[in-house]
Amino acid sequence: MSDSKSTGGTTEVRAEQVELKEVPIEASPQDRPVESLYSNSTSFVATPFDLRLLFGQIRPAPNGKLVNEQSTSVVMSWEHAKALLDALKKTVEDHEADFAPLQYKKRSEKTVA
To answer: What's the rounded Cα separation, in Å, for the pair 75 and 84?
Structure first.
């Protein structure tokens, strides 16, 4: 809530602090099974408003070249993307602590990963 008071051509606005509370979120029962998808390729499309993650598989084509068959797109807000980043980082760190550090070859920015 906020109160406002007008005095001689100016408006004074006083905002009350609102306490934010965490509310637990329960998973709802699914009418159908959640689809599983294997991906060995992920690319991103960014706008000022949201982030699109494109998942796919790199496979050999009949002509001998590799093709990236994109099959799923997930769009999220930047705030959600940052929360996902934190969750993925913690999950990978926990996995490495339980098993072994993961090794991968970093690719250049021009390479489709």
So the answer is: 12
What is the assigned CATH class of domain 36-99? mainly beta
CB 57 within 8 A of CB 68: yes
Q: Side-chain half-sphere of 19: how many Cα atoms within 13 Å?
A: 2
Each domain of the chain, given as residue ranges in start order, spans 36-99
Encode pLDDT of 9-44 as tens digits. Answer: 555 556 566 677 888 888 777 788 888 999 999 999
Spatial contact of 74 and 55, defined as CB atoms under 8 Å apart: yes
Tell me, what amino acid is at 23?
V
- Show the tokens assigned to 57: 């598989």
Q: Which residues is 73 bridged to in the sheet?
A: 54
